Amino acid sequence: MEVYRNRTERLCPRVAASRLRLDAAAGDTEGVLLRAAELEGAYADAGSGEAARWAEVTEAAAAAFVARRPGQPGPCPEPREGEVLWATPPEGFVHYGLAPRDYEAPARALAGRAEEIVVVGVRTIGTALSAVVAATLRQWGAAAHRYTVRPGGHPFRRTLTLPAPLRDHVREAAPRGAWCCVVDEGPGLSGSTFLAVAEALEAAGAPPERVMLMPSHRPDPTRLVAPDAARRWGRFALECAATPPSLEGVDVSGGRWRAALLLPGAPWPAVWPETERRKALASDGATLRKLEGRGPWSA
What is the separation, in whole angstroms, between the first and last Cα of the chain? Predict the structure, then answer.
């Protein structure tokens, strides 16, 4: 049996903003980017107008990150005393070793194919990733306009109604030959999140051949469990993130630690390989290296 849940955590915006400033003072451009994106996404999920102000901070942080230019991303909004939001931890940063810089290469590839791109990040993790993609596109001379969305519904049959500003932008830009780019981690078992966003963009007027899916890995569309997934997935363009570097040692992620560490004939405990943190066993067999997360989630 597989059990799905929405994991959310309390987020104090004043504390998060204070830590962002500390990261900026320390020259940690990745930390600044991830904290700004966390605040932008949390405000967006809450339907708050503050999301737009934090989107500006996220984009400034992404520009500095892509340019490898440490420093303060610019003036940050001052959250209200006692304000509380709810945030979903980005699984790719927490568990899987995904890095924002992994999306620079596919963004450069897209910049060579289009002069104008509407970049759509799927919250949660797509907030930071889409900012990196947009900043990279601009660095390479393309005009990039960024939005974030959150599809809803059953995990295998996600749906999305585009926010009016994004829908209107696509309708206006598509006749000029603009591309759309959907940025997220995954896909998971179904691919339905990517498909929900891509098909909503198509319904707004974007030709499917100019809608690019930008996931963290290249899936086998025949194994995705969303309805008619292989046909639907194949209608859109695809650029995948760069493969994260492997950990030093023997990879024992995804349950492989059982064969490496348990005695022969010992019963194997059940695992859910897709949710294990990445880990490697050193050649001496005495040291285990395990990913503990990136940015705010590495502490």
Answer: 32
How is residue 223 annotated by DSSP? G
CA distance 2 to 179: 37
How many residues would you count in the chain? 299
DSSP one-letter string for 9-49 = EEE-HHHHHHHHHHHHHTT-HHHHHHHHHHHHHHHHHTT-T
Query: Taking a C-beta distance cutoff of 8 angstroms, is the pair 100, 31 a contact?
Result: no
Question: What pTM was estimated for this model as a whole?
Answer: 0.91
Q: Rounded CA gap, 116 and 173, in Å?
A: 8
| Blockwise average pLDDT, block size 10, the chain, 299 residues | 67 96 94 96 97 97 94 85 94 88 96 95 98 98 98 97 98 98 95 98 98 96 96 97 80 90 92 83 86 82
Nearest C-alpha neighbor of 195 from the set 154, 165, 166, 163: 154
Output Rg (C-alpha) for the chain, integer angstroms: 20
In which residue are the tokens 């707004």 written?
204
Count Cβ atoms below 10 Å from residue 192 Cβ, excluding itself.
Answer: 25
